[in-house]
Amino acid sequence: MTPVRRGQWQTAADVLTQVARQPGITRAGVARALRLSTGSATEVTARLRDVQLLTEEPAPSRGRGRPTTLLRAHPEGPVVLALDLRQSNWRTAIVTLDGSLENHQYKRHRSRRAQVVLDNLRRQVEQTQEQYGVRLQMVSLAVPGTVRDNHLLQAPTLEWAELDLTAVAGELPLLAGNDATLSGVAEARTGAAAGAGTAVHLIIEVGIGGTLLIDGVPAHGASGAGGEYGHMPFGDRARTCPCGARGCWDLEIDGRALARQLGEATPDDPVRYTEAVLRRTDRAALAAVAQVVSALASGIAGLVNAHDPDVVTIGGLAIPLRAAAPDAFDEAYRGGLMTFHRGAPPPVLAATHQVDGPLRGAAALALDQLTSEPAIAAWAARH
Amino acid sequence: MTPVRRGQWQTAADVLTQVARQPGITRAGVARALRLSTGSATEVTARLRDVQLLTEEPAPSRGRGRPTTLLRAHPEGPVVLALDLRQSNWRTAIVTLDGSLENHQYKRHRSRRAQVVLDNLRRQVEQTQEQYGVRLQMVSLAVPGTVRDNHLLQAPTLEWAELDLTAVAGELPLLAGNDATLSGVAEARTGAAAGAGTAVHLIIEVGIGGTLLIDGVPAHGASGAGGEYGHMPFGDRARTCPCGARGCWDLEIDGRALARQLGEATPDDPVRYTEAVLRRTDRAALAAVAQVVSALASGIAGLVNAHDPDVVTIGGLAIPLRAAAPDAFDEAYRGGLMTFHRGAPPPVLAATHQVDGPLRGAAALALDQLTSEPAIAAWAARH
DNA sequence: CTCATATACTCGTTCTCCGAGCATAAGCGG
DNA sequence: CCGCTTATGCTCGGAGAACGAGTATATGAG
Predict the structure, then answer these.
(1) Is A309 on the interface with B (CB under 8 A)?
(2) Beta carbons of B156 and B132 less than 8 angstroms apart
(3) A69 CB contact with strand C at below 7 Å
(4) What is the rounded distance in angstroms from the CA atom of residue B146 to the CA atom of residue B161?
């Protein structure tokens, strides 16, 4: 075995990163993006073919010139299993090196008990391992809760206790992350925030989740629990949050807040409750919605002041909420901005990936690891 | 001129980055840190000597073995002029490639008018250029205000209007940044947050400034205005901030907040006023301080929830404020944390760089540029 | 004084990438 | 239908960086 030479696979890794980030890119396109000479492009792609990382197929011609090739994942190349665990169902897909998702599956939970669900996920991993063998390199898991070092610390929608997730992947490396964070990654890579240097992503379901993204990379914090914007004290200090803190923004912007405004009981399912309130046309409902939308927008303005993003993306219930009270949103948003931001406030865009967001984000972060130089070098050493 | 070869100076740039980040590091130490073979270390240092970027001097021996050498800036190598503009004075230093500050100067403003001050800074740059010639590669400037693309947008303490700062550096590249952000960089590189992957730095003078640091790099946002944590709506929405927004945290944690608590007029100099209140021992003053400290601590807790930092560093008046009411601080800090953070809350440490922080941070960011591969390659091409 | 230790220097080898020149596969226009 | 244009791919010699093995050197320990 040859020793690891400095940067031996660096350019190859760069090529794979391009391929993973821009599915369907051509060989000539990669060469342009990385400023590779045609000679280098030939050599690098040949090397990647040799070690079963990529194949090439003729690209549909676009104008004059010698046709180039599309870079595709090798049929014997490495894959990642992406899992998205949701409240009532879960999704899986196989991610290949060219960034495409295959073998999409959607399954409902029969039982929501943690052990049962995790066993099902574990079985899925085992099945995938049987099917793909050593090609399966990694498992990437999106979870609706706070994740820290592959431990689930709290999951309000699932109502699970603290939980170690590593068993799901068995011997394989696991990459567990918060679903809101991962959907932010998807937006920043291929969605509404594509190309943004700094982006803030927020998603309302039960409470609010989100993440700060810098060049497409989430600010995951010391242990992966970054992005819990719902627990910043933007709200009324008199209210205590289930998280243990007081005045959390969370309490001001979802179905629970609407119910409070309307003097109704705290709903069991805040998402459905919110959707129901959004269908109402009575004055009280409209006022409650406007109030919640204002709380959302002024919090967003605070985050814009703090982070100066190029763009803010919103997902989940934030989209219909804003749509229901656009004026209240705009007023509170602009009103919460520092003066110098008001000239050209960062746009607040609806997320383009919806249900697929977490899965695609999980896929993207896993591919980041798989297309890193050491991972490529390790794979190449075995072929 | 040879075309830029991919990574031609990459290892050399890595070596210089090490030297700049750890002043006084030895050649053997760099080789260990970068996992270079002894042969490569010999070659790279020789190359760096040849192009007048480094010199070596015998290192004081530490134990057995052949003595190694200290890597020092070359006497004819590139330098940066670091400037720290403060309310009543300004500081300068020359920064060399090995990260050391030379020729420290401290000057009081004769006039605080923007044009006069900027002219003085400009003159300093010109003098430095006369003295150092082409060795002077860049000017790095710390300013007590919001900076965006080398424009000063607002500077409450200086009471200046919006202002273009580029003229200060003349033809040279300018790197202007907020002083609080830069002092955070200093903490993250060589201060209390050294080694932290994610750090939050906060500093109270008039209002609160700060930054989120990821691997020692500040999250500067789309245009360099990131880190304005003082303008997150942690406070009372009834109050309007000079920044244009409402409920800003800023209004709850400095001398203006103390005066409001005490029913006194808004002070002209909130810093001195705060220091005076901190010397008082009457019940009203103690209560006001406790209130402000609580507002500070619960805001910090919110930022910890959001960013999950390894460590929080505080500077300026935040240090004596916390010292004056440590119990109020701890209670509000812990009380504002999400439950899972309470087991091992990130430490809130006093900044170790005090007045030198902005200057050292400005120096560090400038050196990041100067020790980047393209800058090294460009310099080498001329020697 | 000798040995152990840590580091520095030398040199041949390996490997990647480059650029120049040539080859190739399309579309375009007469 | 045949050259021309255009974009891309392939080949090959060369440059340069980094490595490893071997050797040299300066210190401390016993």
Answers:
(1) yes
(2) no
(3) no
(4) 11
Q: How far apart are CA A350 and CA B108, in angstroms?
A: 51
| Helix A357-370 × helix A10-21 angle, to 10° | 170
Helices (H), A215-356: 250-253, 255-262, 270-279, 283-307, 318-324, 326-336, 339-342
Helices A27-34 and A38-50, interaxial angle, to 10°?
Answer: 120
Would an 8 Å CB–CB cutoff place A168 in contact with chain B? no
Say yes or no: Cβ of A8 under 7 A from any atom of strand C: yes
Alpha-carbon span B37 to B284, nearest angstrom: 66
What percentage of residues in chain B have a pLDDT greater than 70? Answer: 98
Q: How far is residue A354 CA from its own chain's centroid? A: 10
- Record the tokens describing residue A170, joined without a space: 């068995």
Tell me the nt nearest to B27, Cα to C1': C7
Tallying the residues shown for chain B, one arrives at 383
DSSP string, B148-190: ETTEEEEBTTTTB-SEE-GGGGTTS-EEEEEHHHHHHHHHHHH
| Amino acid letter, B88 | S
- Mind telling me how many Å the CA of B329 is from chain A's nearest CA? 15
DSSP E strand stretches across A31-184: 54-58, 69-73, 79-85, 89-96, 101-108, 136-143, 146-148, 151-154, 163-164, 174-178
pTM (two decimals): 0.92
Q: Which pLDDT score, from 0 to 100, does residue A6 have?
A: 62
Task: For residue range B105-129, list pLDDT tens digits in order.
Answer: 999 999 999 999 999 999 999 999 9
Tokens of A299: 């919090």
C-alpha separations of B94 from A274, B15, B140, B206, B303 in Å: 59, 21, 10, 28, 35
Give the Cα separation of B84 and B359 in Å (integer).
5
For residue range B289-342, list pLDDT tens digits in order.
999 999 999 999 999 999 999 999 999 999 999 999 999 999 999 999 999 899
